[in-house]
Design goal:
The protein folds into 2 domains: 37 residues, no CATH class; 283 residues, Alpha-Beta Barrel (TIM Barrel). The protein is an alpha/beta fold and 329 residues long.
């Protein structure tokens, strides 16, 4: 702080002096009042897990250092790599290779970021056998926290092969995982659409998982159910997701991570995209009282940091800045 503040010669002579004085008080920051640092838009509880799904494919290899740096800057604790695509009918690392994942694991090794390896899931015996034979061992090799199943249309609309029912396929999957020596060190997570929670094709998967990630991505519509607070709208969808997990898919000791959207957040009357992101994260934190919610996870990294990790295409202009402000000490 400047030595003369507080002396008889320090009387303010106009707005420039006032600005300089307050700049000193907050650590030497200068410039217009509106550019001064503010408190974080949402206060996160200690230990709150902030995650993203990394859906940048080969960009993880070409720009790995930039992605790692940006993840650290935003306070991300869970980086969930999408290892394959929704259209792939056999299990393989078709989005990001094992070599690329190993390299990225090295780039985040000295940070608080932990990996999750996320795969689409199909009710096919051959797919499940290949997954169980490979993914847990590789996750352990790279020091991942978890493996995760993205359970959407390939499972919910796909017909079983090698099983009579989806419930039988899910039971086989988890029996196989329990017999795998690498699984004891891993979280087993399942992410799915909110409306699928509790349906017969999802029930066994969710009751067997120890992490559940409901995809509470609110959507816009002229229908009142999509308004702020509506069952498909900001705040409302997060509350409904937490209730559905509790009522239809809860397991002893299961953790919930709330899936939130980092795209298409504009369009609600009178609300900016930042407003929507803030109220959805606020709702998630507030729900921790009655629900075992331990964090939030955003779809997706490319909308936050771009394919290059520096805000390039297809990143939007608000998601990264919002999360940067949340990470502000």
């Amino acid at each position: 702080m400047r030595a003369h503040w507080g002396t008889s010669s320090s009387a303010f002579r106009g707005p420039d002096d006032a600005e300089a004085f307050y700049g000193d008080l907050i650590g030497g920051v200068s410039g217009p009042f509106e550019n001064w640092p503010e408190t974080a838009p949402v206060a996160l509880p200690d230990g709150f897990r902030m995650g993203v799904w990394l859906d940048v494919g080969g960009g993880l290899a070409r720009h790995g250092a930039d992605h790692a740096s940006r993840l650290r800057a935003l306070g991300i604790t869970d980086a969930c790599i999408m290892v394959n695509g929704v259209s792939k009918k056999t299990f393989a690392y078709t989005s990001v290779s094992k070599t690329q994942i190993r390299a990225f694991a090295g780039q985040i090794a000295m940070s608080n970021i932990q990996l999750t390896l996320t795969t689409w899931l199909r009710p096919k015996r051959a797919f499940i056998d290949a997954l169980v034979a490979d993914l847990p061992a590789f996750a352990a090799e790279v020091g991942a926290r978890a493996i995760e199943f993205d359970v959407e249309e390939p499972w919910t609309r796909g017909e079983p092969a090698g099983f009579r029912t989806h419930d039988e396929a899910a039971g086989y999957l988890f029996d196989s995982l329990r017999a795998n020596p690498h699984v004891d060190r891993l979280e087993i997570a399942t992410t799915c659409q909110v409306d699928q929670i509790g349906t017969p094709r999802m029930q066994r998967l969710l009751t067997e998982s120890n992490v559940i990630v409901p995809q509470a991505y609110s959507t816009k519509s002229g229908n009142s159910s999509h308004r702020v607070g509506g069952e498909y709208g900001p705040r409302g969808l997060q509350g409904r997701a937490a209730d559905r997990v509790a009522n239809r898919a809860s397991t002893s000791g299961a953790t919930t991570i709330m899936g939130l959207a980092a795209y298409s957040r504009s369009g609600w009357p009178g609300q900016s995209a930042r407003d929507i992101m803030r109220m959805e994260l606020e709702a998630t934190v507030a729900l921790r009282g009655p629900h075992p919610i331990e964090g939030a996870r955003y779809w997706s990294w490319k909308h936050i940091a771009g394919n290059n990790g520096r805000g390039g295409s297809p990143a939007n202009s608000y998601a990264g800045k919002f999360l940067e402000d949340v990470a502000t000490p």
